[in-house]
Amino acid sequence: xxxxxxxxxxxxxxxxxxxxxxxxxxxxxxxxxxxxxxxxxxxxxxxxxxxxxxxxxxxxxxxxxxxxxxxxxxxxxxxxxxxxxxxxxxxxxxxxxxxxxxxxxxxxxxxxxxxxxxxxxxxxxxxxxxxxxxxxxxxxxxxxxxxxxxxxxxxxxxxxxxxxxxxxxxxxxxxxxxxxxxxxxxxxxxxxxxxxxxxxxxxxxxxxxxxxxxxxxxxxxxxxxxxxxxxxxxxxxxxxxxxxxxxxxxxxxxxxxxxxxxxxxxxxxxxxxxxxxxxxxxxxxxxxxxxxxxx
Amino acid sequence: xxxxxxxxxxxxxxxxxxxxxxxxxxxxxxxxxxxxxxxxxxxxxxxxxxxxxxxxxxxxxxxxxxxxxxxxxxxxxxxxxxxxxxxxxxxxxxxxxxxxxxxxxxxxxxxxxxxxxxxxxxxxxxxxxxxxxxxxxxxxxxxxxxxxxxxxxxxxxxxxxxxxxxxxxxxxxxxxxxxxxxxxxxxxxxxxxxxxxxxxxxxxxxxxxxxxxxxxxxxxxxxxxxxxxxxxxxxxxx
Lengths: 295, 238
Description:
The structure holds 2 protein chains of 2 kinds. Chain A is an alpha+beta fold. Chain A contains 9 helices and 4 strands; from the N terminus they run αβαβααβαβαααα. Chain A has 2 domains: about 170 residues, no CATH class; about 100 residues, Alpha-Beta Plaits (2-Layer Sandwich), CATH 3.30.70.3040. Chain A is elongated and about 100 Å long. In chain A, about 30% of the residues are buried. By secondary structure, chain B is α/β, with parallel strands linked by helices. The longest helix of chain B is centred in the last third of the chain and has 16 residues. In chain B, α3 crosses α4. Chain B is globular, with a radius of gyration of 17 Å. Chains A and B meet through α7 of A and α2 and α3 of B.
């Protein structure tokens, strides 16, 4: 068994509990930021995969008959699409499905049946190349002037903008948490240096090097931060489970079901270790600097 | 005994002060123009009235303070402006007994005495052997695992002395090391210092105890009114 001997009277130290509690809170906050960041990333990936390589073509009803799926214009569009080399599949969305999509807003009554709904054509492309997408758009415009072609980029870009903003907030939180952890350790270490100044004097006089004294403080900071970090993670676990349960109650159409990547769980598990390393380095540097000012 | 060393280990003066002065911040000078040279294997009493600066002079020698003016050499090395990273090696050749003991309250008597050896990374078997032997010698074999606060002033003083000599220093600086013990124990502790001195360790022992000074044939450094005067032994060698 490895036994550590400490010349500093760490038990009952004034700042010990304070550091553990504060690190617990900081790791809890960092965990929220890590999960937020991972969730946003996974959500973006999901949306990106859903819309990349697809087009939605909207053929306005005024250009066609009441039941346009069988109309000549739709047939022309589908014909152009199916012959285009960049198109993998192209199919008109059945009117029933369009009606279904509108159900939350218009219900299922006669009003919907009488609505002049446009024809929607779902297109899956075999490439993401912008030139190929433009070529497809041009062909469709030629076949059906007035058709609206949506490659979802505008919508996705706005969502990406929002997600990147939220990601930046999560990152800022991580930076602030790191700074707060560093400052906590600096002040706690300074308080301990003052509290144990006589012990440190004795250690120096019997020949201890600054590095030896700094090592004792660093080891103490490591243990306290690891304890606080583990406590912070344990406190976060039920919160994460609760949020996941709340998310599971939302319909998949509004919020897709997201599973976190392995990296999310690895980073979460590493948070106490990261906190410990930051604390160790900070305590070591703080003590060495303080001692360098002595005789 | 195992604590002692051969005289041939030492070369040159142990302590040299050249026109040394000391003052705290903007306060008055504690002493000035002090020039003394402590040869190897010598024994000096440091005497003088309270507040004369005996403790301050010793603190210069154990490198807790630096001279305001003048030069200080220890073991032939000029340490007046020595960088901090040079000091631990020099301090490991010193043994210091503080007037207020400065024992570490959270440690047992054994661990307090073992401290200089452990700092020097001496093997635990040697630590066990030397510390046990020394604590027996100073009559504390039954109190090895006791915390200092549970021991009397005299017992604490003996632990402080044991800690100062356990690593076989070349120079012992003792500030009133017999101030809290009765005469019988004082004589026994003095015998420890004398025995170390006979085997080559230099000793500078600050004391108010005139009885002790008159009993041992060692020269004195008398500190008064900011200057040091070398005085002959108060007692004849037996």
